[in-house]
Amino acid sequence: MLVESAWTYRHPPKVGAKKLYRLEQAPPGVREIAWKAQARLTARYRMLSGRGKKTTVVCTAIARELVGFMWAVAREAHAT
Question: Who's near 40: CB < 8 A, 6+ residues apart?
Answer without folding.
Answer: 65
